[in-house]
Design brief:
This protein has 14 helices and seven strands. The protein has 295 residues and is of the alpha/beta class. A five-stranded mixed β-sheet has the order 1-5-3-4-2. It has a two-stranded antiparallel ribbon with strand order 6-7. The protein is rod-shaped.
């Protein structure tokens, strides 16, 4: 059985550093920063504020209650991560579920790992930590990637290294944001998969995307069937050409020849009345029989 993090009371020196307004530690260059950074200490929940950069907006209440029950029995197994603010105030970097569940469980303090970070570093840490979650849907991942690129000013190559993913994987997620918002919601709600979305991306017109999306839902199409549907939509088969109408003389003449040699005869006539007569044969004997009719 896993053991909860052993509660570590603040030593007199560390406690004084965290609570002394005249010794405010906000960056690694500040005096005594090395004595604060990296420590896991019990911090009052009341002194911790949630992360304003948290990309996650929904927390399942049932899951929080289950986690709260576990915390009551075992304590907080993994410390949260906070950054130092002014005085004895802190801000969450990661672990908001544990923070919320601890409050539900009635805890007054929580073990926390202290970091020093500016706003940009906070945003980046929050987004990267959010991406690593197992239950994240593809659109949430794509939105987190987009924020890292736009707000942290990362290239796709730099982003792929930060999150430990291939660049092609990052690109595939970002391309999902080109889908109509209704389809993005469908992916988030599990009506269709990321594979369905990837297939629909090649359709640029959103009205056409939605038309195919509705057909996928209605007919419960697989990803492979969706890919085939998209391909047919992009390259519709041309209607078979209607053979030109033969002039009356050609129809009557072909009938005369056909009756004469007892074989089917085809006639082609151009607009200027020029044409050709085709008499098929399968063997040398059939060919010789045709010749005899004309001798």
């Amino acid at each position: 059985m896993a053991k909860a993090v052993k509660k570590q009371a603040l030593g007199r020196g560390l406690s004084a550093l965290l609570n002394n307004p005249s010794d405010d530690i906000r960056s690694v260059q500040d005096r005594n920063a090395d004595k604060v950074v990296g420590n896991i200490v019990e911090i009052a929940l009341a002194n911790i504020e949630v992360n304003p950069f948290q990309p996650r907006t929904y927390f399942n209440q049932e899951g929080l209650n289950e986690l709260a029950g576990s915390i009551k029995e075992l304590g907080v197994i993994q410390p949260i991560t906070v950054r130092k603010l002014e005085g004895n105030k802190f801000q969450l970097v990661s672990g908001e579920r544990r923070f919320r569940a601890s409050s539900i469980a009635g805890l007054k303090t929580i073990p926390a790992y202290i970091r020093l970070a500016n706003d940009q570093e906070m945003l980046e840490m929050a987004l990267v930590e959010n991406i690593q979650r197992k239950d994240l849907d593809p659109i949430e991942v794509a939105l987190s990637y987009q924020r890292l690129i736009e707000e942290i000013k990362l290239t796709q190559e730099e982003l792929s290294k930060r999150v430990g993913k291939n660049r092609s994987t990052v690109t595939n997620f970002l391309r999902l944001l080109k889908l109509d918002p209704i389809i993005q919601t469908g992916i988030r709600d599990g009506f269709v998969s990321m594979g369905h979305g990837k297939a629909l991306i090649s359709i640029e017109n959103h009205a056409e995307q939605l038309e195919l999306y509705e057909k996928i839902i209605r007919q419960k199409l697989s990803v492979r069937q969706t890919e085939a549907l998209v391909k047919r939509n992009k390259h519709p088969q041309s209607k078979p050409k209607t053979p030109p109408t033969l002039p009356e003389f050609a129809v009557e003449g072909a009938a005369v020849i056909s009756d004469k040699i007892n074989r089917k005869v085809s006639v082609q006539v151009s607009k200027n009345s020029k044409g050709k007569i085709t008499i098929p044969f399968a063997t040398e004997e059939e060919f010789n029989a045709i010749i005899k009719h004309f001798e």
